[in-house]
Design brief:
Strands 3-2-1-4-5-7-6 form a seven-stranded mixed beta sheet, with helices on both faces. It contains seven helices and seven strands; from the N terminus they run ααβαβααββαβαββ. It has helices at residues 15-21, 26-29, 43-49, 65-85, 98-121, 158-171, 191-200, and strands at 32-36, 53-57, 125-126, 140-146, 172-178, 205-209, 220-224. It starts with 14 loop residues before the first helix and ends with a strand. The chain is α/β, with parallel strands linked by helices. Strand 1, helix 3 (43-49) and strand 2 form a beta-alpha-beta unit. The protein is globular, with a radius of gyration of 16 Å. 39% of the residues lie in helices and 16% in strands. Helix 3 (43-49) packs across helix 5 (98-121), helix 4 packs antiparallel against helix 5 and helix 6 packs across helix 7 (191-200). Mean pLDDT is 94; it is low at 1-6.
Length: 225
C-alpha cells in the first residue's frame, strides 16, 4: 500500500508541475483553461500573473484561505510520513526527497493563499464539485484535473468517473487527467472500463507519457477530445 487516506487532501501543485504533468505547450497556456478539483494549487495564481485565463473549481473553496491552510497543515505531516515509510513507491526527480516535497507543497500553498481572496472576488476561484459544473457548453478550450480522478478510485466508483469526465467534456473541447494511478500505486481499476465506454460514445482518447513522475509509474495522462 502506498498511501492510505480517508478523504481527499488539500495539496496543490505549481505551474511548472502542471506544465510537466499535462505536457502544456505555449499555445495551451494561452487558451481558456478550467482547473477542476484544483485544490490549493498555485497554477491559477502563476498563470494569471503571466497573462493566462484560468478558472479553478473545487468544493474546498467553500472555505476561506486561513481554513484551507489549516486543513493543509493538519494533513501535511501525516502524508509525508507515509511517503517516507514507502520509499519503493516514489521517484525523486522533480522533488529531491520527502523533505523537499514538503517544502514545495508549503511554497505552493503560500502562493495560493496570497492570491485566493482577490481571485475569488474576480471569479477565478469557484466553489463546486464534479460532476455538476456551472459552466455553459464549450466554455473552455482545455480542462485539467490533477490528483483526483483515478487517484481516489477506492473512494469513487466507475460511474462517478464517467459522469465526471462527461461533465468535463461538455464544458471543454479537450480534457487531460493526471495521474492514472490509484493511491495504492497501481493503475486505477476504473481506467480501462471508463475509457472503453467513452470510446463507444465517440470520444477520441489517448494515454500519453509525460515528463513528471512522483508516484513510481505515475507518469501518464489521459487526453480526451
Amino acid at each position: 500500500m502506498s498511501i492510505r487516506l480517508e478523504q481527499t487532501v488539500p495539496f496543490g501543485r505549481s505551474l511548472r508541475e502542471y506544465e510537466l504533468m499535462f505536457s502544456l505547450s505555449a499555445a495551451d497556456r494561452r487558451s481558456r483553461i478550467l482547473d477542476c478539483a484544483a485544490g490549493p494549487s498555485s497554477f491559477n495564481a502563476e498563470l494569471t500573473a503571466a497573462g493566462g485565463d484560468v478558472r479553478s473549481i473545487d468544493p474546498l473553496y467553500q472555505f476561506g484561505g486561513a481554513e484551507i491552510q489549516r486543513q493543509f497543515f493538519s494533513t501535511l505531516d501525516h502524508v509525508i510520513e507515509q511517503v517516507r515509510a514507502t520509499p519503493q513507491n516514489w521517484v525523486w526527480s522533480y522533488h529531491r526527497d520527502p523533505e523537499d516535497l514538503r517544502r514545495n507543497r508549503i511554497a505552493v500553498m503560500e502562493q495560493f493563499v496570497a492570491d485566493y481572496s482577490g481571485g475569488t472576488g474576480t471569479g477565478r476561484y469557484l466553489c463546486g464539485a464534479l460532476p455538476n459544473l456551472p459552466f455553459e457548453t464549450d466554455r473552455f478550450d482545455l480542462a485539467l484535473s490533477s490528483h483526483f480522478l483515478f487517484l481516489y478510485s477506492d473512494h469513487f466508483d466507475a460511474a462517478f468517473h464517467l459522469a465526471a469526465i462527461r461533465a468535463l467534456l461538455r464544458v471543454a473541447r479537450e480534457v487531460r487527467i493526471f495521474p492514472l494511478l490509484a493511491l495504492r500505486a497501481e493503475r486505477s481499476q476504473h481506467l480501462e472500463p471508463v475509457c472503453e465506454q467513452l470510446r463507444q460514445e465517440g470520444h477520441h482518447l489517448s494515454i500519453e507519457r509525460v515528463g513528471y513522475e512522483l508516484q513510481r509509474g505515475g507518469n501518464e495522462m489521459l487526453r480526451l477530445r
